[in-house]
Amino acid sequence: MSKTAEGMVLVINSGSSSIKYQLLDPDSGVVAASGMVERIGEDEGGLEHRADGDTTERREPIADHAAGLRLVFDTFAATGHDLVREGVRAVGHRVVHGGEVFYRPTLIDDDVVASISELAALAPLHNPANVAGIESARALLPEVPQVAVFDTAFFHGLPAAAKTYAIDAEVAAAHGIRKYGFHGTSHEYVSGRAAELLGRDPAELNQIVFHLGNGASASAIRGGQPVDTSMGLTPLEGLVMGTRSGDLDPGIVAHLARSAHLDIDQIDTLLNRDSGIKGLSGVNDFRELRRRIASGDEAAELAYDVYIHRLRRYLGAYLIELGGVDAITFTAGVGENSPQVRADALAGLSRFGIEVDPVANTAESRAARLISPSGAPVAVLVVPTNEELAIARAARHLVGRLG
């Protein structure tokens, strides 16, 4: 077996029209290869594969996820990592929604695949794509253990008061309606890394984590266990996001149906794909938003202000819920790369022991780091998320435990 494949885990994140992947060592975190297949099902698809300092690009139609994953495996073989011939330790799959059924890493079999498919009603944009990736990988690597790691798992044990919606209890029970939370793999990984950086036991810490990317979520974590999170039944609830509205009055749905004559699918598309930063400003890329603000675009400035207002509202709520906080951590694309967002989200909070050091905050670095002043009562950190490593370690651990 090749030294590059032995003991490694292949992590697959299959989206509606894309497949992201990494081949990595779960012990060291070293990534042997990574890449992305995009525009699956469109006239012109593509693959970008990175390994050993080189990048391989392919541009061709990719009919479906099975064709996309075959292209990935062919590219691995052409660049020195023949996964079919050499094998890997395990394949770890990111699955968005586990419902009430799945709340820990799970070895995949036919029954598990069927159950994930049944949960598509709770995540219609995600779970079907996750299943497509799983089925394709199982066909290509039938002898390799495949493990599902669920975005909702970290938040499965939320306190009843936090996870329960105030609607008819029988209706909620019949349709699986509760707060599930998402980005759980990231929140768990980042809160653990924050504790490591501070040299503290997670059991001693009250933490707030902001996962700010195109999708965005916040969590309140007490003693290593989440007590609340911003996303809910679906990834639509909570913070303002790139294209998602986040929190809004539920009456808006009925109002749009009656007044704008939109059907439920049109409203779903509006709130998930055409709202948030995009709906307010016309763009959902944060870098473009900042450029528009600099040029005097009032719509872009309002979108940013609404975004920050919602962040601060959740920060305040979680400060009260936790009874005080020891660490606030920013992660994901915007959280890691926007000093302005971090500064504005925490501005004027020195009376709560929360401050940002301007020099540390604006220093260019991709490393996990502290950005609060030395000796500040509340640690403010930037911690790059690494969901792939967390998935790889969870898959390897489960496979090892099961022998």
Structure explained in plain terms:
The strands form two sheets. An eight-stranded mixed sheet has the order 5-4-3-2-1-6-8-7, sandwiched between helices. The protein starts with 8 loop residues before the first strand and ends with a helix. The protein is α/β, with parallel strands linked by helices. It has helices at 65-78, 83-86, 110-118, 127-140, 160-163, 169-174, 184-198, 251-259, 264-273, 276-281, 286-294, 298-322, 332-337, 339-345, 358-362, 387-402, and strands at 9-14, 18-24, 31-38, 45-51, 54-60, 90-95, 106-107, 146-150, 206-212, 216-222, 225-229, 327-331, 369-370, 379-382.
pLDDT < 50 runs, ≥5 residues:
none
As a percent range, the share of strand residues is 15-25%
Radius of gyration, whole Å: 21 Å
Query: Count of helices?
Result: 16
Distance between the termini: 20 Å
> SSE order in H/E notation?
EEEEEHHEEHHEHHHEEEHHHHHEHHHEEH
Oligomer class: single chain
Mean pLDDT: 94
Strand order of the largest sheet: 5-4-3-2-1-6-8-7
What is the SS-derived class?
alpha/beta
Q: Report the principal-axis shape.
A: globular
* Helix share bin: 25-40%
